[in-house]
Design brief:
The chain is mainly alpha-helical. Helices cover 70% and strands 4% of the residues.
Amino acid sequence: MSYPVGQVAGFAGVTVRTLHHYDEIGLLAPGERSHAGHRRYNDADLDRLQQILFYRELGFPLDEVAALLDDPEADPRAHLRRQHDLLTARIEKLQKMAAAVEHAMEARTMGINLTPEEKFEVFGDKDPEAHAEEAERRWGGTDTYAESQRRAARYTKDDWKRMQAEVASWGERYDALMEAGELPDGERVMDMAEEHRLPITRWFYACTYEIHQGLGDMYVADERFKEFYDSMRPGLAEHLRDAITANATRHSREA
């Protein structure tokens, strides 16, 4: 059984010109010729072509490929073992490269456009991208997420410091209400929940009451968010979630 050059090119995903070149340099001479003198490749030729393409994919130059394949001491199994080892090493290298790229992508997920020095100055030992994966999993691809990305990417170090100051002030006042025994559905606590919602709209995206309730649930369900709010005061995450729900209910009654 033999095949014309065009058909072999289709099998292998290479051009006819490539096969002609391999023939011209003696790397892959077709085993047969038609009566008209056209190249025809048999099964042994196809096996050799497969070996050539394996080594080429691994980055071997053509002269080294020829030397490897024409080594009289080598057998087909030796070629396969060598290629398997080389491919395994390449896969490991590519996996490491992919992990590095993924890490870089995660580092940009929140669009925080700061130098490492500025990040440390603003956030200290807290990672500003710590919640990025969860945010992207929940909202990646939405208009809301895209708007948040767009805005965050243009904020300066001073903007982030201003946001932090707002959060710190809010946390101190919420802590005081909890210390005084205020319940989540109390007017002053609901006002604080509203004060929590509005800066999200101002800084990142239009935070509807429905979205705000989803955030409140996440503050309790996700340990990373829960730890952040409970660091202001133990139990604050659940208290805030309930206050957000109460505030949304209040708004629906007033609407």
